[in-house]
Amino acid sequence: MTAPYDDSTQKEWKERKGKIEGYYREMGQVGTTGNEKVSSIIITKSGDKLVIQFSDGDGILYEIIEDLVSPLRMIKTLSNDEIEKFKKLTK
Length: 91
Hints:
Blueprint: H1 7-26, E1 49-53, E2 59-64, E3 72-78, H2 80-89
Antiparallel strand pairs: 1-2, 2-3
C-alpha cells in the first residue's frame, strides 16, 4: 500500500506540525511565551464563540474553527456596550 502523499509533502507536514507543537511548548505549558501564567483557561469546541476584551473595554468576537494553524476566525470588533450584552447572555 502506498502513502497518500509523496515523501516531500509528508516531510513538509511533519515540519509544520513540529513548529506548531514547538510554539505551544514554548508558551510555558499553559502560559505565555514569556512564561507568565494565564488568568484563565476555557475549554471550547469548534463553532463556539469567544469574546476578547481589552483593557480599554473594547474587544473582538471570534469563532472557534477546526484549523490547527489558525483556530480563531474574527467575526467583528465589539464596543464595551456590545461586550456587556454578551456578558448578560452568559449569566
